[in-house]
Input
Amino acid sequence: MARINSAVIVILAALALAACGEKDEPNVVGPPVPPVGPGEPTDTGSGRGGVELEGLGEFDNPVHLAQAPGGAPLYVVEQTGRIIRLTPGGDENVFLNLSGKVKAGGEQGLLSVAFSPDYERSGRFYVDYTDTQGNTRIVEYRRSRKDPRRAEKTSARVLMRVAQPFPNHNGGLLMFGPDDRLYIGFGDGGSGGDPQRTAQDGNSLLGKILRINPRPQGKEAYRIPADNPFAGDSDIRPEIAVIGVRNPWRFSFDRRGGALWIGDVGQNALEEIDLVPDPTSGANLGWSAFEGTERFNSDQEAPGALDPVLTYGRDLGCSITGGYVVRDRALETLYGRYLYADFCQGQLRSLNANAAATGGSTDDRSLGVQVPSVSSFAEDERGRIYAVSLDGPVYRLVAE
Output
């Protein structure tokens, strides 16, 4: 999402609620795409054309999409507080409605859902939302035992409540990594320029990506994995996996190798894409000592900060939406490329992921496909890629 002094806040606040319409059948049943094995081709696609959008339906300010383990239904997260469950037959129902608990608008609202790796058995899932006081809550819910099409609202268990000093830069993405740990993205707390200097502050959860085991332990609401990079460091919160992010508006894991890709929204000059090969390495992405590759706050230091693999300026947009490394072999022109977009431009773009990982030319280019107000991307168990527009539509990317 956007910084407080950008036009995105105005755009978001001005959007009318999208009317729900008839849903095309989302063909989401089928075996997962197997991981790339030794000896298989690693060449990336051309990134040129060959892709079109297949509409799955219209929703009320959708900001996220996820699929529970076991395939079949997709779950669309609406910023206004609902999670909609879509079935392969095109049916839909409200899986969970948190509208009365959520403060929605601008960069606040119900921002994501993540299903536990053992969801088929346990029915556990997690949501990230802005509560009515403007603070972030991470809450566990369970699927209803009586009706698996719905969640049990009385099952709520709060894992975290994190105070937000300003109404922007909430981050908001929850995602289970390939290591089955829950990753949580927090922006720096908002305003502009990191006024409270949270991003490099090891005692603050703001401006970080966290890594936890969400199961309770004794009186604690969640557990700290023993292999977390700062688990034994008394100067840094043990939940932290990545330091120095401004507003990580969508991150993902490459299903081949597990590298962490992050789209981090810039301040006034540069949007950036970051690559963390090992999510347990304790990477520092540099904000607010740096904006992209440029020095920003002179009173901040970021020792050993990683350089972004790509930055771009205001000629290409104003607020990055991070995506995925495409591993859907049906999308030949995108295979092995990192797909992303900018909220203001709406132009889908891709870069060569292999080259970016080795410091080579990223070959960044447009797909020639437009999705206005891109709020999120998603990947299902088969490796297929989806794009979400805050204006209402949700699409799957298919070969022409």
Q: What stands out?
A: The helical segments are 7-14, 119-122, 353-357. The chain has one domain: 7-399. Confidence is low (pLDDT under 50) at residues 1-41. The two ends are 30 Å apart (CA to CA).
